[in-house]
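Model it.
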Amino acid sequence: MKRRASVIFINSLSTYARMGISMFLSLFITRTALDVLAQNSPAPKEVFGIFMLLISTSTTIQFLNESTQQAMVRFLSISLQNRDWHQTKQLFNNGWLMSTVIGSSIAVVMAIFAPWIITCFNIPEELISQAKYVVWLSALAQVINAVSQPWYAALSAEERYTLVNFLSVLQQILILIGLNLLRFVPVNLLVGMTLVWLTPGAIIGILLAGWLTLQKPFLRLDFHVINWQDSKKLFSLGGWSSLIGFASNLYERTDQILINLLLGPALNAIYAVALQLGSALNRLVTSLTTVLLPAASRLSDSGSVWEKQQLILRSTRYVLTLALPAAFGVGIFRREIIELWLGKGFEQAIAILPLTIFLVFSRIPIFVTWPYLTATNQLKLPALAILLDGICNVFLSIWYVKDFNLGLAGIVLGTLSTNLIRFIFFQIPLVAKLVELPIYQYWLKGYTRPIIPMFWLVPTLWLIELWKLPIALTASLLIISAVLYTISVWLWVFDEYERKLFIDIVNHVLRSKKVRIY
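Modeled.
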């Protein structure tokens, strides 16, 4: 148990380091993109909104490949734990074939229907030609990413998340460099931004595939080991995961499409700002849940009931401990953050951000449960539930905007309403039943402790924002609040076992003579 906890701790640490760096890089990327557009376009917000709409729409159907990747991580984790190299090779090759076929099929559909896709959006006539190239380039990138994704799955199954995190940060750095180069390169805005956005990921994927092929014999392509049985297992789990991905995209991507159709493309940029800050908070949750999937897969195969319960309870507490102060901090200081980031002119983003943050709260418990549901291959009911919610979200968003005239807030409220219902009445009871834990104990042990420090932290942050003190004094008070919060987490959120485990892990890491770079 301690060894597994140590691996999770190190991977989580590197993942959160990557997440923090990525959050700042994302802010710089958005700001740089708007600055570049402002130099070359009379309506930079509108062009940026169209670009984000096209990119997000093109990536909507990538959930099919991502679902196959998650299924591969689940089964590869177990075969690697058992050191069954032949089974590992079979799973890898079956997964590669599925990923390549699915990715190529998606790309062909995107390329063929690009003109029709463009006509569905309210895009100015002078940008229609460029918009088609955006979709076609996205289709090409989809093929490359699909071919290389199985190697990413193998890295995750081996719990080599430090390397995965490094590659993710490197990709963002390359995007930022490319955006700055656009200032000096005469190219169509939408096409140039698309190339900058998609090329780094494709190149890194190809290089990673080549490197791992040379390093690991069981990660080499060998079509002789492909068999129907392994494909069936991957297809079953990946299929339900794909349905979940499709329904999730009804939440995420159709919101942008609805904004474009109902409110205009300029408001998509406003929505993207609020969504990006909300997504940064979401990553506090998803970063940890991604790391947990291999461990959850191994526990589902050979772990005790107590270990399964502890995985759910402790991961819930840890995620809330990180996400709650960050979310309240962003909500309280939202005006200062947005104006420091992008300047004036984003009042609507400031107005809807509290709803976006509340949406993060409702999604935290849902995200935390996904690794265990995937590891135990229990995705059928959640997939059907989230599909129903996704459909309801579309109708509720239109209703809030059209009948109640709520504008952007109506779009967010549509998503929030269905998430709250699913969180309270479906997802939590389902997971509690799977780990044989009474629902009230799940609420009590998973959610009560992280909320206790919020009773003093939130009023403190609110007063700091209200006083409008000088920057140096404000920063000092925030640092003191962070230190006190850390102490309160150590005393109130962690139990005796967790405190001892944490000290043992730190001591083990400090004493370790063998250092791995991945």
